[in-house]
Hints:
The structure holds two protein chains of two kinds.
Chain A: H1 13-35, H2 42-67, H3 75-90, H4 97-120, H5 126-144, H6 159-166, E1 168-169, E2 172-173, H7 174-192, H8 194-204, H9 206-211, H10 216-242, H11 251-263, H12 275-294, H13 299-317
Antiparallel strand pairs in A: 1-2
Helix pairs in contact in A: 1-12, 2-7, 2-10, 2-11, 2-12, 3-4, 3-5, 3-10, 3-11, 4-5, 4-10, 6-10, 7-8, 8-10, 11-12, 12-13
Chain B: H1 13-20, H2 22-46, H3 52-77, H4 85-99, H5 104-130, H6 136-154, H7 164-170, H8 178-192, H9 196-206, H10 208-213, H11 218-244, H12 255-265, H13 277-296, H14 304-329
Amino acid sequence: MAHSRGVTALVSRDQRRILFAVAAAILLFVIGGLVRPGFASLNSIGAILSIACFVGLVAAGQTFVILIGGVDLSVPWTLNGAAILMMSSAASSNARLPWALLLTLGVGALVGLCNGVGIAVFGVPAVVMTLAMNGVLEGLTLGLSGGLTCPSCAAYAPPLLQAAARGTLLGIPAILFLWLAVIVVASFVLSWTGFGRSAYAIGNNARASFLAGVNVTRTTVILYVLSGLFASLAGIMLLGFGSQASLGLGDPYLFQSIAAVVIGGVYIAGGRGHYVGAVAGAITLVTLVSVLMALNMPEYGRSITYGVIILALLLLYGREADES
Amino acid sequence: MSATTAGAARRPRWSHLLGQNAGLALAAGLLALSIVVYCTIYYLAQRRFPGGFELTTTLNNTMPLVLAGVAQSIVVLTRGIDLSVGGVIDLTNGLAAISLGDSAAGMLAGSLLVLAVGALCGLLNGVLIAYGRLQPIIVTLATLSIYQGIAIRVLPEPGGEVPAAYTAVLANTRGPVSLVYLLLIVAFWACFRRTALGVGLYAVGNDASAAQANGVAVRRTQIAAYVLSGVFAATAGLFMAATSTAGDATTGNGYTLRSIVAVVLGGVNLFGGRGSPVGAVFGALVSAMIVNILFFSQIDPLYQSFFEGLFLVIAVLLTGGISRFMRRGA
């Protein structure tokens, strides 16, 4: 948790990491504006932030579970399955939207519940449980939709959902309001509630928090449920954004969400960090890709530069304390 | 049981060995079980038992996963993880397809070049982790992207050529030559784990600061583990090129997660210090058997990953329970 070290330190080490991530994002926008005029225009920034929103939503759940020293590898097919379930259950109709929404989010929560119970109650390592869950969901999604050939798989996202994901409100992409709401709620929960404090406590030392009266099992399960919820929410919004779901839709979001969380200064072994950092991390990553595209860099060059810059950012501020 | 010296009941040697290698023993048991189930289902479907042809094909197709599992297990032993395994396989597989000459010397030089590139990839991971003081998961996530990028640069489109003689050596379709390679891996590990470096791997994985206090060069050991992992991943790339007789700079991608599955099924503890790459060999073979079993049970291939995932959880729950029981009971 944040506590300042000495009078000279105006901000704690953890807050400094968040500030670095924000600075990296701003710097990338400036670089983008220099190489391609109009890159830093309001429209372009809005477009980049909308894309970052999908990474950011997934990263919300990922932040929660990484805070307690876990990880959620089931993100890709939770997201992909949610998008396909939403598409086929809403069947292009606005009238069915609310029920489809409830159903899809419910399934997302159920996935998280299974993960959480497997990890917290049965003691399966988080990596194994969520990796296996990813396979289970992949098989179920492919099998039940017949490899996306089922009759209802030809549906489109309801117009209302498309408007929510692609439209603007007061000149700002509507989806950013959703993200803002998630940021506000997640920050409030992490910083000002007992639940948030329990999460940090578990991440720092699960046994000590158990002895101190924290309900470790319940908190862990709830955090994984939240991760499932956020992954399915991202799937729903991606469906609205692209109007149809495809297979493999969720694949990029596993590594991107973890990278966003870590670049945002969340300690991968748990106990330290904040969602605000992960938000900055998500924006940094997506802006980076946009800058590289603006430079007309070929795919292999983008892939290499992407890796190098992540490493450079981490070497700059993500290093652990020297123990030796 | 009779009390021996100092009143403490001494455990028989076999019981001690079993307790030490609970993960390995369970992985072997799992493999035996999956082979029995496979043979039964195969018999029910085909009215005969699988023979040399099935053995050869299965082994040839599984060798890349076996080697990827070994690569992953070595860094997992040090309490690390290598997500770049898939990227190294991409890169080395692509490189093999364009660098293997037609002559024996050319093939040897090409293979050595590929292995050196794998070692270099591992070295970069290791140095960043040991001296950069960065978390393995995020370093190898970043280098995964780098290696994948280089792989696409090396071989933009699937193709290249692997000499037939090379395939005949690494992935011979006439007989189960791969058994020799499996034995070589086991022999290598049996020797390696007795070296100072091999002992150091376990020490670092169990408790890095205690290892440091006892004179283990922690950073050098970590770097060595990643280099070794890179070399094994490169070997996987070579075997993959030999099996498919061409290169593809993207087929390795799936091997990152599959190698972790092999490690888990092989009874290697994900938190370091316990298990063996030999277990990962068993784990890789078990996952190959599961695919075979599903195929012959006439299950819709679309559901394949569903059953693989389900099996992974059940296997981990079962082996976790049994090994706890063994350690307590023995």
